[in-house]
Description:
Distance between the termini: 35 Å
Low-confidence stretches: none
Number of domains: 1
Helix content: 40-55%
CATH class: Alpha Beta
Mean pLDDT: 84
Structural class: alpha/beta
Largest sheet: 4 strands, mixed
Order of helices and strands: EEHHHEHHHEHHHH
Amino acid sequence: MMQHPKPVWILTTGRSGSNYLSAMLNNTGLFSFTECMHENNGPFRFIGCINCKALRRQFIRSLHDGARDEINLSLPGIKYILLNRKDIKSKAISHYFAHITGVWKVHQGELEDYFKLPIYLDKDLLKACYDEELSYLNCWDNYLRDTPHFRVEYEDMINNPVETIIKIFDYIEIKITPEEAQAAVDKCDGVVMTRPEFQEYLEELEKLI
């Protein structure tokens, strides 16, 4: 969350492109997006005694109408953005691969090494990843119920990143030119982490759900 010129809270679910979105927004120099509870990017990452994943789960699941009202009163004019991925199954499989490999983000030139990392089928973990994605999305949907917000879909962001940035900045009332948006996208060096084994694991997940 931040003041810029109004508070903005970008709510995300796992494997929805928050690393990519934060990089694009930060690259504009007009908006600073910090993932407060991210174990790799957040401010708590250097404090070993804090389990960021557990803290994040507890925080999200503790939100209720009273908490929302308190946040809205504390941050007048707050704008909400929900970053999500339409394909829940793909998101769950991406989450599973990240758990198994320990790799959550791949930069240009690293994809070949990432594909060499071994993976294996753990049906319980695969189903748990799917259930967790549904749980997070349900929590955010409940929190945002009857609350105006702007929805960003992962698939649209990947296919049309410049258009996505422009729409976000229009929503949060910050001026940006198409040229500035394009420059921000061009600075990103992350890549889509779709593994060759994706279809195999999709079939396994469909058997479980």
